[in-house]
Amino acid sequence: MAFQPILDIPGKSFFAHEALVRGINNEPAAAILSQVNDSNRYWFDQRCRIRAIEMAAALNIQARLSINFLPNAVYRAESCIRLTIETAERVGFPLDRIVFEVTEGEKVVDHAHLISIIQTYKKYGFLTAIDDFGAGYSGLNLLADFQPDIIKLDMALTRNIESDRVRRAIVSGILTVCRDLGIDVIAEGIETRAELDALLELGISRFQGYLFSRPLFQDYVREWPQFDAA
Question: Is residue 116 helix, strand or coil?
Answer without folding.
Answer: helix
